Amino acid sequence: MTDSMWQGSGVDLDAYLSRVGYLGDVAPDLATLRGLHAAHVDAIAFDNLDALLGRTAVPLDLDSVQEKIVRRGRGGWCLEQVVLMAAVLDRIGFTFTAFAGRTRIRTGSRFGPALHVALCVELDGERWLFDVSFGAYGPHAPIRLAENSRLEGDWPFDLVREPNGEHVLRFLRPEGPAELYGFTTDARYPSDFELLNHFCLTHPRSPFNHRMVLQRTRPEVRHLLAGSTLTEIRPAEPAIVRELDVEEMLSAPEEIFGITLAPDDVQTLWKISDGP
Question: For the residues 203-229, what does the mean pLDDT come to?
């Protein structure tokens, strides 16, 4: 196949499908798009641990991302996951662009940096928001990218359009809608990812370089660990929040989030967490 900037020819598609447990046929159609989305978020956690482990860089080249997430069983933050997912969709034959969103749910602001990246897939004359890396509050399936679009089910979402032209993705919780992020569909490219990656790894305002942030979206429950605070979310129920002790924090990557860590990395996290 002719290569593109999304490097579909370089992805080990069979290994990826095995990693996420996807057993169906693959084709550039809506059934595949939905199936891959559900399988990916169920299997692969949001994981910022490299930023805490003294890594001087979080590589975004496809080979490094595949080695980390597919072969070593780690998660990744949104930029890594989008690099991997874009290569998979490119290999299968989907048409898409990337865009960046300004996170609202944890910042309380509509004007923060546009650090979150997701994909806009064009299929049969419609556009679909395809976001596998927002974490515990993110969608479990693609959502049609249109004003007042809704994703129904146990985990409902909608999209609204603001007067300034931004789309806003909302998680429809029992206590009321939670605005996740605002975005336009202006195209972003892999070179833009490198700038965002550098901010996330090094900037003092980054939310990801000073405490553990792990997130996972599963069909029956969602988990978010921020520092020592674990939030558990179930359909149509108030969130449960509790504080973890150091031992619980260090076992959480594998036991709750399905992340495989090397023994040396566990020891480093123990030291960072003021363990003995």
Answer: 87
Q: Is the pLDDT of residue 207 over 90?
A: no
Residue 210 DSSP code: S
70 within a domain of the structure (yes/no): yes
| 213 C-beta neighbours (distance < 10 Å), count | 21
Residue 166 is part of which domain span?
8-272
Residue 170 has a CB neighbour count (10 Å cut-off) of 20
Q: 16 to each of 68, 73, 78, 81, how far by Cα in Å?
A: 12, 11, 17, 12
Vertex 66 angle, CA 186 and 33, to 5°? 50
Cβ contacts of 172 within 8 Å, gap of 6 or more: 156, 157, 158, 178
Q: What is the CATH number of the domain that holds 18?
A: 3.30.2140.20
**Pair 1, 8: CB distance under 8 Å:** yes
What is the β-pairing status of strands 229-233 and 222-226? antiparallel
133 in any annotated domain: yes
- 182: which 2 tokens? 């605002």
Arithmetic mean of pLDDT over the chain: 90
pLDDT tens sequence across 53-85: 877 678 899 999 999 999 999 999 899 999 999
Confidence check: pLDDT of 19 > 80? yes
Q: What is the pLDDT of residue 3?
A: 63
Helix, strand, coil content of the chain in percent (nearest 5): 30, 25, 45
